[in-house]
Write the structure tokens for this entry.
Amino acid sequence: MPVSLPEPSTVDLRPPDADEVAALSRGILGVIAPDGQISPLQRVLIDAVVRAMTGFAPDLAADPIGPAQFAQVMAARDLAFRTRIVQMVILFALVLQPIPTEVVERAARLAREAGVDEGMLAVAQEFADGSLGLASIDFERNGYTATWELEDERALHLSSRLASAWDAVADDPALAQQWQELEGLPGGSLGRRVTEFYRARGFDYPGRPGSAPPLLAQHDWVHVMADYGTTVESELEVFAFIARANDEMRAFSLLAMVVSLFETGYLATGAGLFESDTGHLSRAGVAVRLADALRRGARCAGSVDFLATDWFSLAHLPVDEVRDRFGVVPKSVEAIAQGSVGPWEPGGISAFQLGAGGALARSQGRDYESFGACP
């Protein structure tokens, strides 16, 4: 029988204190540890995420508790809190290779006991079963784009409707022109910085052949606004930030997607453009960077769906003003020390992107400008 949700008058909405974090730690260990032992990446990731989101260190030496007792720990918490905890448990399971079936079963039991309906559990189960093709389908069925509506699509400024959310658009001159016109905005404005971001990396504007899907291009504005570069490690940061800023719980699938692409390779492709490139979350410091991106997303003002934002309506504003509108807080000292960089800093661009930017400049008969970015 699921643990009942508290009455509105008794629900606990306070940030977790040290005692609650310790109890949650025991529950996390009881669910996600294969054979009672967490992996090195799980250890680093749990420590980073719990510290970033609560301000307290998890107790990773504590005696674990099972899913039923874990759900009781959250008895005073609302459904949103419980769902976030279940999602973090799934995140910690998704970095295992392979994912033991018993870990997914314990996560599913925790969800049932806590009264949480989380679609990414089906994906985790399919990963554990080795049904990777089925898991890819379930990302669409249970993930962010399952609720994509015409109203959301209006933010993309398309001339015609998409057949599916992540479709590329190779022949929309009006859309491409709207992007190109951003080049005429004042220096330092969000739109102008986005065009510099594109030109430095050799990206084609949406609406042209070879361009990214318009929905995926929405996250390029976030790279600039939230100050993240464009290496694979930075993509993990951007999607963690986007996923946690949105109170629609399906947005968690965006983070699950990039971890499955860029750490384990459980997904071969995603978001209409990305291809698997594994081992990046395991690199030194990246777990801390991802955790800080989650913190920054959570601290945004209200619930923000950055992929459904009409960025063109904000393009004329200075970048700092856009950050203030969304309540974007600075990166932590720890994340910066671990290599989190912006699009214009050393390490904020890949060597491939630098070469592509130079090739684009030559094809357009102009001098190449990286605007400060270098590998």
